[in-house]
Amino acid sequence: MPSWEAEPGRLTGRWTAYRQVAPDWAPLYHAAGEPYPTQTSGRWHRSGEGYAQYLSLDSSGAWAELIRFEAIRGDARAAEYRRRLWALSVLEHNIADLATYEAYQACGLDPRTAIGDHATSQNLADDLRSAGFRGVLSPSTALPGAVNLTLFGERFEKVLQTGIDRWLNPQPDLLLPATLVVEGNPPADLITETTFVGQLHYGYEDWAASREHGGSRAD
Amino acid sequence: MGAVFALPSREVREKALLIEDLVMPARASRERALDVAGETAQSLVARRQAWYQDIEDAVLDLSNVLPQGPEDYDARKLFQFLIELRRAMASDPDDRRGEVEVATARLRDVGSRIARRIDHERLDDPQAAVAWVFEAMTGVSARDTGRLLGVSEKTISAWRGGGVVERNIPRVVLVAQLLTYLRASMTPRGLMMWFDAPRPQLGDRTPMELLNEPAAAQEPLVSLARGIRAQLGS
What we know:
Number of helices of chain A: 5
Number of helices of chain B: 13
Number of strands of chain B: 0
Strand content of chain B: under 5%
Oligomer: heterodimer
Largest sheet of chain B: none
Strand content of chain A: 25-35%
Radius of gyration of chain B: 22 Å
Radius of gyration of chain A: 17 Å
Structural class of chain B: mainly alpha
Largest sheet of chain A: 7 strands, mixed
Order of helices and strands of chain B: HHHHHHHHHHHHH
Largest interface: A-B, 56 and 41 residues
Helix content of chain A: 10-25%
Structural class of chain A: alpha/beta
Order of helices and strands of chain A: EEHHEHHEEEEH
Distance between the termini of chain B: 33 Å
Helix content of chain B: 55-70%
Shape of chain A: globular
């Protein structure tokens, strides 16, 4: 039995998404021929149980993931990082539309799943994969207002200098065109916008309060 | 693990990196390009064949120096992906289906993994480990390097001069291993800050605090350091 009351919407489309990685690491996570998958656990997968490609629909969302994971609390530390920010063109189908807290609620899912502990999201990911979903759109925990796109399974990059949206992708299920946006460090301005572990997520809190007050806070 | 270290690890590593180099995206695209100006059909075929032959030779070379030869797990994977590449090149010369692209990426993954494996095994040797730490922490003071390795500035100076590492070996080896994951993502100063920053994944303790118990610190610190390589959903 899936954890939802109503199945999430299935989206087909093209998204431009962003992802930051170490300069000596490939834009996407692939480790062909590993005896067992060794990707570190994340919100939508458990280590040892396959791979997931964690992307953000805007570059700030990608940087905020680094700031939160690394607990970068000050400008001085942010300045010492060196990362590559990649843009990727994703042509996909069967993407679960959980991009908003309303979408969670409409499916009978607790909207706090989007920003809560990973175990609940990982269980939901199991249900999504079993139902044939290839990925999920969900609010970012790291940056209120941002949306993350996570693709289930292995993908390979086709690195292009330009034109990622125009490249005729022969295998969109497996290949994603990628282009380097910048090699640098996370913007210091983003530190104050990032939700760190243990902090209230004001994106969710505002949404929950607006529900409590019949939408008046948003007016 | 130990068996590989007994081998000429530099040779193994170089052979693994040669495979990686041959199938790097820019080179792979250039070598199998179909539309080079002025090139005859004959030279085009010869160039593509020569590139494939170089990869095959590199795979054979590497498998010969791995501890279990062609029976090594990764060697078998290399052969598997090599066959995929050959078949893809034969059935779809201009790679309209993208299968050559994927086969080269898979070969690259295995080559990189073997090179990383050799690096990690090499760093089990405390002399190699301390040399790697000094290289990664270039510009960091002896005081801070000593703090990181849990020894005095005097010991750091002795080690820099080639002294035998006899103290804090598990800690030296662990720090060296952690730096293999972290080094590309930050400056030496940033590396020092990483060790001094409280982390929620460690119950708000710093990596430096955990280093006092290297055996217990191994799993949480390696997991934390590996996590930085690529974006994860938080």
